[in-house]
C-alpha cells in the first residue's frame, strides 16, 4: 500500500529561486531513493518552515527515508523535524484527482 510522508522543520532559508538553485543536486538525488514515487517541496518564508510531501511505494521505504532524511537535516543543524506517515485513501483521492493515481 502506498504511503504519504509529510515532513516539516524549522528553516531560515534560502527560499524560492535561491533555494531551487542551491538544492538542485539534492532534489535530483531524491529521485534515486528506494520506493520514492514523487516529492512536492514545501516552504513558508513567513513561518520559517521547510519540508516536503512524499509518496512512497510502501511503509518500509517511507520509514527508511524519514530516518535517513532526519539524520541528514540534523547534520545541517536543522531542528524541530516532524515526520508523519499516512495511509492513502485511494477511493476518495481518485475523486479529487490525486497526482499519484496515474502511477497506480
Automatic annotation (TrEMBL):
<protein>
    <submittedName>
        <fullName>Monooxygenase</fullName>
    </submittedName>
</protein>
<keyword id="KW-0503">Monooxygenase</keyword>
<keyword id="KW-0560">Oxidoreductase</keyword>
<dbReference type="InterPro" id="IPR011008">
    <property type="entry name" value="Dimeric_a/b-barrel"/>
</dbReference>
<dbReference type="GO" id="GO:0004497">
    <property type="term" value="F:monooxygenase activity"/>
</dbReference>
<dbReference type="Pfam" id="PF08803">
    <property type="entry name" value="ydhR"/>
</dbReference>
<dbReference type="InterPro" id="IPR014910">
    <property type="entry name" value="YdhR"/>
</dbReference>
Amino acid at each position: 500500500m502506498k504511503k504519504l510522508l509529510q515532513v516539516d522543520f524549522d528553516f531560515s532559508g534560502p527560499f524560492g529561486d535561491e533555494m531551487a538553485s542551491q538544492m538542485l543536486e539534492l532534489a535530483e538525488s531524491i529521485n534515486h531513493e528506494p520506493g520514492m514515487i514523487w516529492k512536492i517541496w514545501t516552504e513558508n518564508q513567513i513561518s520559517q518552515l521547510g519540508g516536503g510531501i512524499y509518496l512512497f511505494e510502501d511503509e518500509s521505504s517511507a520509514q527508511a527515508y524519514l530516518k535517513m532524511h532526519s539524520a541528514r537535516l540534523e547534520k545541517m543543524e536543522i531542528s524541530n523535524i516532524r515526520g508523519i506517515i499516512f495511509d492513502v485513501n485511494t477511493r476518495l483521492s481518485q475523486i479529487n484527482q490525486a497526482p499519484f493515481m496515474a502511477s497506480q
